[in-house]
Amino acid sequence: MNDFSSAFLVSLQLIGGFEAELRAVTGSVCAFVIGVPLGTALAIYRFPGRGFFVVLANALLGLPPVVVGLAVYLLLSRSGPLGTLGLLFTPTAMTIAQAVLGTPIVIALVHRSAGGLWRAYGDSLLVSGATRLRVMRPLMTMGREALLTAYLAAFGRAIAEVGAIMIVGGNIRGYTRTMTTTIALETSRGDLSLALALGIILLCISMTVSAASLLVGRGLAER
Question: What parts of the chain have a pLDDT lower than 50?
Fold first, then answer.
């Protein structure tokens, strides 16, 4: 058996210890739940400072992950405002960092889609006397493909992240260590076979989640 085959078998044995990849799903779902209504609201409501929030959401698309990690670290550290919760170096802290990274992506993408739909159909949606709050749901339904894209973008950012989750998670073996951090660690050690095997499994996980999301979106579209 060659080195890669052995490494692949070892990586399969280790797969049960990488629940963090499933937490990436949780982090991206949190970003989705927060970002969709905010992005839609920015598209249909007019209020002072709206332009600033739109620019901010788009600017945060390039938010450096290590800056997010540092901000969450300071928030959850013992001297921080949420230090008493004891969340630092836990999976929950990693999920929070992933959600913070993904939320601006969802807001920006949903705002762009909802804005176009609002300009095209806003008047007809309001003609029946419905309030802007009530038309948010049908507007999001019409833009479900954009919502799916926004979720997949947030998930991709969450599952590929290394810097932020290492800062807030501590890279503790068997607890907060993820596949991405392990790939980086094994590559630095020179164990390229194991790093490559883990990379293939991580790619398979990402493709599985993406395919499942597309199937869900297709099912909703056929209703």
Answer: 1
